[in-house]
Amino acid sequence: MAALIQTASSVLRYRGGAGQWAWVIHRAAGLGVLAFLLLHIVDIFLVTFGPGIFNELLFIYKAWPFRILEVALLFGLLYHALNGLRIIFADFLPVLAKRSTARTLFYIQIAITGVLFAIGGIVMLTTAKEEPFGNNLLLSTLVVVGIVALPLIVALFFSLAPTPTTIGLDRDPSTGNYQDGVDLIVRNRQRRPMNRVELNIWLFMRISGFILVFLALFHFFLMHFIYGVDIIDFKFIVERWTDPVLGLFWRSYDLALLVFALVHGMFGVRYVIEDYFHNRTVRFILLAGAVLTEIALIAMGAFVIFTFNPA
Q1: Tens of pLDDT along 77-111?
Q2: What angle is formed at CA 30 by the lines to CA 26 and CA 34, rounded to 5 degrees?
Q3: CA 120 to CA 147: how far, in whole Å?
Q4: Do 259 and 291 form a contact (C-beta atoms < 8 A)?
Q5: Least buried of 99, 126, 227, 241, by fewest C-beta within 10 Å?
Q6: What is the value of pTM for the model shown?
Q7: Domain membership of residue 62 as a residue range
Q8: What are 21-69's pLDDT values in tens digits?
């Protein structure tokens, strides 16, 4: 936990440039998307209890605070997907990993993310039926800008704030020990040789990440821009999964999205745990909990997808 606090504080204070913030936002966005996925699996599981419970709980998704969270989810998906693609290409095309090229690609990625997020976020909010966002372009724009500006304000605040001596960081943020934290992470990972299992995990993260760019973004686009969350209810699920032509396709699609997203996300959680929790007992408990949670959620999702029968 001390390593987590120290690294988080160092990240917020250290002026490490584009590479540092690309890594920070990528990890934060991934954890945020995973948190939403866990909630989504639980609420879909409720269809097994019939339309009453499922439809009654859908008010959560239609409340205005959750509308803002869904727009934030769009940002997380776009950033994590596009930054992940940049990482994948750099891994397999070393010429793209050069510092100047990587920085240029990062800025291009940020520009694309910003444009897509601005358009998508404003459309999501202005088309909402509930107050206060419906048809309110000004308020919707302010929310979208705020989601992007908030992390920048936080970073600026911590960059300018004096460093507490209890954390043990250098006073000058330009020479903060963020690099020391990175070196610690690297040394920790180097204790584990890159055996075949680790190599396969590395490959899976790249392959599954590439697949999820299309699976997850298409699912989000379909549900929020084609259908709209206002029409999603028990009847919608029934028609989607029992359609005589596309029912099996949508069930298979949802299962693939479930498995790839959960396994990819849990391997990401594994990296976080191993980076910041160095006590073996604590690490084992957290990793075991993550694995058991993953297995339980995949089982719940698969059970609903292939046993759901509204009759």
Answers
A1: 999 999 999 989 888 887 877 777 888 888 899 89
A2: 175
A3: 13
A4: no
A5: 99
A6: 0.80
A7: 2-170+177-307
A8: 778 888 989 999 999 999 889 888 888 888 888 888 877 777 778 888 9
